[in-house]
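Folds abound. Consider this:
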Amino acid sequence: MPEISIETLRERLNERLPEKCKELKPHFDGVPVLSLRKGSILPLTAPHHMIYIATLESGRKVVVRVMNPTIRKYAGEKCPFKMTSEIATMKYVRKHTKVPVPEVLAYDPDKDGKVGGEWMVMERVHGVAAILMWPALSKELRRKLTLAMANVFAQLLKQRFSKIGSLYEEGEDSFVVGPMALIPSHDKIDRSVPDDEKCGPFGSQKDWLLAVAKGDLDVGRDRPLQGEDLERMKEVIKEIEEADLLDDAADHSKIALEHVDLNLTNVFVNPDFPTEITGVIDWEGARTAPMWAIQPRFFERTWKMYEVEKQELHAFGYELIRLRVSAWNAGGREPGWELRNLLREAQERRVNPSKVEDAVASLARLSLQVDEERLRREAFRRSETPEPEDRRY
């Protein structure tokens, strides 16, 4: 398996950037990759990428992400168009919303293979990862930061698309929905990737759910279903085909943009004003999806929080989102709950996973989804009568 050529990467950077690269340093687990204000640092790693900091002649530092072929043995395969879709999404969000997103300065697919993997260059995000600031924040500041994240979420919900999939560039400043760019597996056993011809874009909710149920969007082991698993899949497919809830014209079925990992780890804030978001990162796997399927998970990786506080902040964030995007509010109640249950059945279509780790992972995902659904219901029960959408916080 080839390794990344630092010298070739430096040469390509000099060709693509307006300034020469005078220093290029790799960063690994636990090593700071972003130079942050007031001496703060953030370790940035990814199982499919190597991260470098390039120092330009002017002293400016930029972030370089390279698809890493050498450590891919520790993780699964990636979809071939993941990075191009990620870049298109970032450009789209910068153009059509006020969400702060790093500017993409360059991209190269490494067609000749001399670097060792496709790569992109981004501007450095100034600030601190919100997850690092969170423990020191007061209750009031946590509420304000939750509102700021809900505002980001609402801006993405307001975007409208005609198909379900992922974004790609189509000419200069033009975008199109294409195949769904799925997040790579973090399991080294998962060596298979979906057939891109089966990844969309999907013209209806039913087509998308059927693709999920059939395993067309699975990033994992290429293992055909047998016995009870196969029968269960057939039952789920029949349930989807006969579902009366799948109304593409309904408000809650409008197709919006989703950042699939919008939580405190991927939100940067101003350390002097920690409720001010300075950047949102990690757009890989972003997709266009029906609004009923898009639900916030702001505190998904925030383990040191009391359950009561999570419920209160979730309810607080949901309230702002539903006020800003009334169509999403309908998807939070009936029939949104039933539709999400249908999606969950499509995702968890196996009866008897053939390996113990599959069963454990399946139960963990189901437990998380049940928790999230309970939080959603509790949030909406606590919600008061909707106010006008132009309310400002």
Observations:
- Residues 130-382 form a domain with the Aminoglycoside 3'-phosphotransferase; Chain: A, domain 2 fold (CATH 3.90.1200).
